[in-house]
Write a structure and sequence with these properties.
Shape: globular
Mean pLDDT: 86
Order of helices and strands: EHEHEEEHEHEHEHHHHH
Strand order of the largest sheet: 2-1-3-6-7-8
Low-confidence stretches: 140-144
Helix content: 40-55%
Structural class: alpha/beta
Number of helices: 10
Number of strands: 8
CATH class of the largest domain: Alpha Beta
Distance between the termini: 41 Å
Largest sheet: 6 strands, parallel
C-alpha cells in the first residue's frame, strides 16, 4: 500500500482524510503531525519515509509551506539520494497566489479542502506518476502575477495578508517587529500598485 503522512492542525481533517484514505485499501497512514516541530520529528523517525505528505498551509500560527524546504533537508541528512516524499497541499485557501507559492516552494500538487475525495485520489495518482496536479479552474482564474516582482520575504508577508492575518500576527509568526512588517508592506504596495490590503488580497 501507498504510505501517507498527514500534517494538519485540525484533528477532524486528519481523522476524516486519514480514515477515508485507509478505507480505500490503497493507502496506509504512516503518521500525523499538527505542528512544524511534530512534522520534523515524525519525518526523522519514519523508516521508510512515506511516498506522499498531505500538508496544510496554515498550522495554527505557523506557515505549513515552511516545512517543504525542511523536508528536503531531513532527507539529505538521513541518506544521500533518498527519495523525497511528494507533497500534496490540502488547504481551505483557494487563492491562486497561495497555490503558486506552494508550487514554487516545491509542492507537487494543491487541492482545496472543499474538493471531493475523488479529486484527492486523482491528485495523489498524478504526483505519484511524476506529474503536478492543480485543479484547472485555479489556472483559469489566475490573475496577472504582480507578486512575481516581490522578494521572498515580501511574498511570505503577502501570503500571510491573504490569510487575513493582522500586521501584529504576521510579525509574531515571522519573528520580526511590527515596524519591519509595515516597511515590507509599503514596498509590496508600491511594487504591486495595490492601494490597500483589500486590493492586495484581490491580486
Amino acid at each position: 500500500m501507498i504510505s501517507i503522512a498527514l500534517i494538519d492542525d485540525h484533528p477532524l481533517a486528519i481523522n476524516g482524510i486519514g480514515a477515508w484514505l485507509s478505507s480505500t485499501g490503497r493507502f496506509t497512514i504512516a503518521g500525523t503531525a499538527r505542528t512544524l516541530a511534530e512534522a520534523r520529528s515524525l519525518l526523522k523517525m519514519l523508516d521508510p519515509l512515506p511516498a506522499i505528505i498531505i500538508l496544510d498551509v496554515a498550522l495554527g500560527a505557523e506557515d505549513g509551506l515552511d516545512f517543504i524546504p525542511v523536508l528536503k533537508e531531513i532527507c539529505n541528512e538521513r541518506k544521500a539520494g533518498i527519495q523525497v516524499p511528494r507533497v500534496l497541499v490540502c488547504s481551505i485557501y483557494e487563492d491562486p497566489f497561495l497555490i503558486q507559492r506552494a508550487i514554487d516552494q516545491g509542492a507537487e500538487g494543491y487541492v482545496a479542502k472543499s474538493a471531493e475525495f475523488t479529486e484527492i485520489i486523482n491528485a495523489i495518482d498524478s504526483i505519484l506518476e511524476g506529474k503536478s496536479y492543480v485543479d484547472p479552474r485555479y489556472r483559469m482564474n489566475t490573475k496577472k502575477r504582480a507578486w512575481s516582482v516581490l522578494t521572498r520575504r515580501e511574498n511570505e508577508i503577502a501570503a500571510l495578508v491573504k490569510q487575513s492575518l493582522t500586521t501584529r500576527q504576521i510579525a509574531k509568526r515571522l519573528g520580526v517587529s511590527v515596524r519591519t512588517v509595515e516597511n515590507h508592506l509599503t514596498h509590496i504596495y508600491v511594487k504591486t500598485d495595490a492601494a490597500s490590503r483589500a486590493e492586495l488580497m484581490d491580486l
